[in-house]
Amino acid sequence: MFSKFTxxxxxxxxxxxxxxxxQEDFVYHWKAITHYYIETSDDKAPVTDTNIxxxxxxxxNILTQEERERESxxxxxxxxxxxxxxxxxxxxxxxxxxxxxxxxxxxLSFYTKLLGRIRQPLLPHINVHRPVQKLVRLCGEVLxxxxxxxxxxxxxxxxxxxxxxxxxxxxxxxxxxxxxxAAKDGGADLVKKDPSSPDTGQNxxxxxxxxxxxxxxxxxxxxxxPGEASPSSVHTTLPxxxxxxxxxxxxxxTKSPDGRIVVKAxxxxxxxxxxxxxxxxxxxxxxxxxSQLLTDxxxxxxxxxPQSMDPLDIETVESVNWGLDVYNLKEDAVAFAGKRAxxxxxxxxxxxxxxxxxxxxxxxxxxxxxxxERFFVAIMEPQLMQTSEVGILTSTxxxxxxxxxxxxxxxxxxxxxxxxxxxxxxxxPVGITQHPLRHRLIEHCDHLSDEISIMxxxxxxxxxxxxxxxxxxxxxxxxxxxxxxxxxxxPEEREEREHMENGQPxxxxxxxxxxxxxxxxxxxxxxxxxxxxxxxxxxxxxTKPDGKTEVHKIVNSxxxxxxxxxxxxxxxxxxGYDTYLRDAHRQFRDYCGVCQRWDWRSSPKPFEKxxxxxxxxxxxxxxxxxxxxxxxxxxxxxVNLQVTSVLSKLSLLPHAHLHExxxxxxxxxxxxxxxxxxxxxxxVGDLMLRTHRIPDFTPKLLLVRKRxxxxxxxxxxxxxVTLLEGVIVLEEFCKELAAIAFxxxxxxxxxxx
Length: 753
Prior knowledge:
The protein is mostly helical. 59% of the residues lie in helices and 1% in strands.
C-alpha cells in the first residue's frame, strides 16, 4: 500500500515539475531504477509493486520521442547514454536474476518494445546484440513459464529484425570454443574484465546486496549458460561448434502447452529459415534440432491416425493451413472417426511444406531429405508395403493426399525420389524391381481390389500433374528416348492412309471450320511459342501441297476406331466430340506452362542417332496401363474411367516422343511393340466379335449410357452391363484423344511464324 502511495506521489510531483531536457529526464528515470536496488533490501516484493515498470516505460517514450525529433539515422544523447552505459546489459542481469520477482517479464517487454519502436538499426551495436543474445538464451528454459508470452514476443521481434537485415544473424551464431575458453577464467573475472560488463550508472562500491548478488549470479551463469558445455567438457566439443540459440529457444517454445505460443514459435522459425546467410543455414541444419522437430511431430501425428479410414474422408476433408485448424471435437467426432487426428497431421504437413518452401536453398534440401528418411522411409513405407488390403487402401489414400498438398520444390523432389527412386536410365524388364516401392505401387494399379487399383491410379494421376520433370522421366520418357518402338527403316506410304485421304467416313469432322477455334483471338491461343519446342514438327509425309498438316487423318483415325454400331453418343444431346475440345485446350495450356522450363527435346531424336537395334521395353508403368486398357471391356466402369484419365494426362504432355508414341496412329511399330493406338485397335477387334453375340445390343447400349448420365432411372438389370459400360468409355476416350491431337496441332500452327 505504501509503495503504491509513493508511486502516485511521484507521478504528481513529475506532473507539476518543469519539463527537463530529454537526456536529463532519461538519466533520472534510469537512476531511479538503480536507486531502488540501493535502498531496498526486500527482494520478495513483486516488481509490479514498485516504480520500475513506470520508469522503464518512460525511458522508452523518451527514446522514441528523441528519434522523432531528429533526422533519420542520427543517434541522440539518450540513445548514446543507453549504449555507452550498457543499460541493456544491466537489465539482462536483473532479468536473469528475476529480482525483484517479475523483473524478467519487464526486461523482456522493454527489449521487445525498444527493438520494435526504434527505427534506426540497433542490433549492429555490440552493447545491443550481445545482451539481446544473452536474453535469447533465457527464453524457453521452462515450459509453461509465466513469462512465455513475453519470451515469444521478444523472440519474434528479433526474428523480424533479422529478416530486415539478414547479415545481422551472424551476431547470433555463437562459437562454443570461445565461450569455453572464457569460462575457464571464472565468472567473477567476467564482471571485472569483460568490456561489456554492465554499468548501473551508480558507484559499484555503494551497491548493496541486491545488485551485487544479481550481477555476480549472472556473471557466473555466463560461464555455463544454457546450450553451452561446462569447462570440464571442452574436449568433447565438435569441430563445427556454432550455437544457434535463437533457433533452440524457438524450438523449446514449440513444445509449450499453449497453442498460441506454439504458433508464434513456428512463425519465428519460418522467418529464421528464410535468411539467406550460408553460415546460418549450415548452423541451422547441423547444430539445431529443427529437422528432428519436423519429422518427429509428423511421425507422431501419423501414428495417431486410425489404422482404417474411408479414402473418401481422407480425400474430401477440408484443407487446413497450419496454425488455423480450429478444434471442434463434437463436430469432428460426428463427421468421421479420426477427423481431428487427420486435420492435425495435414496441418503439420502444411507447416513443414511451407517452412521448406521458405527456407534457404541448402537448408531446404537438408530438411526435405530428413523428412524423406525419417518420415517417408521409416514410417510410411512399411504401411505401403503391407499385404492387408485395408491397410494398403488407407495408406495409399493418405499418400495421395500428401502428394496433392506438397508444393515446395525440395520436399516434392524428395517425395518423388522416395516413391520412384532416382533412376533416369533406360528401364529393363529385369530391373523393374530395383526400387521395391515403385514396383509395388505400379503393381497396385492392377490389383485384385478395384478400390486399391483406383486409388493408386489416382495417385499416379496427381503425380503426373506435379511440376517435377523427374516423375515423367522416371515413369515413361526414359523408355522412349531411343525411339526403338519404331522399325529400323523409314515407313512407306500405307494403304490405309490412301484410304483416309481419298474417302473420309461419314462422321469425319471438318476441323478447320470448327467454331470453337475459328474465333480464337491470338490472346486466347497458346501465345508462347516455347511449348512448340516440345512437340514434333510436321512430317512431310503428312503434308498436303498447300503445306497444311493433315491432322484430319489423325483425328479421324481415333474418331473412327469404334464402329458405328457400337457408338451411342450421337443419340444423346451434348455428348459430341466438340465437348472435349475446350477441356483439352485448357489442360494442354496448363501443361505447357509447367513444362516450359524443362530441358525437353525440340523435335524427335533423329533416327540416325537412335539405337534402334536395342530391344524396346515400354516400361513397367506403361505396360500396366496398356494391359488395363486392353481389358477395358471386362473391367468395372470406375476403373476404366481412371485408366483412361491417366492415359489422357500422358497424351497431353508436350513431349516429342510421348506425342509420337501415344497419338500418332501411323508410326511403323517394330515387331512385338505396341502403342496406345494398337492397343485400342485390338480392343475394337475383340468388341466386333462380341457385339454380334448380344441381342438388342444397340438399344441396351443407349439405355446404359442414359443411366450413366442420369437421364434414365435405374430399372431392370441389363445383361453384359460391364461390357456395355466399357464400350461407352472406349468411345468417349477415343473422342478425347482426337480432341487432344487436334488441340496440340492447332496450338502449333497458331504459334508458328
